[in-house]
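Sample intake sheet
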Amino acid sequence: MVEVCNVDASLHNRLSKTSAGWCVRDFMGHFVVAGTSWKHGNLSVIEEEAEALIAAIQEIANRGFTNVVFETDSKNVVDSINQNRVGVSEFSSLISKIKCLLSLHSSFKVNLIKRQGNMVARCPHTCSGRHFLA
């Protein structure tokens, strides 16, 4: 069976922090597990989207999931994962890490989803710390 993990990130300039969230649903769309995190600092939105995906992949792998489709609304992240370019920026480093994680878990896939379809992973700016819901 295939599970779907929606991943999203938000930048909160006024609060100088970024937040991320992910939510796993089973093949019937039922909630399985979710997680949120936040950190202080001003990463770019694209870097935070990539970091959110890394955190989700690592957590899902650590929990023993297989056959997971990760959905993100970040076209830049998905396009970069599917390209063979290598760069020296922080974003390029994050993409390399994602590619490495995906190579270790060949049944994990990353797909683009419209922003409206990714609302399940949205994390409000009031998140504090790191939380897992099961």
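Comment: Helices lie at 45-62, 75-82, 90-104. The domain at 3-133 is CATH 3.30.420.10 (Nucleotidyltransferase; domain 5).
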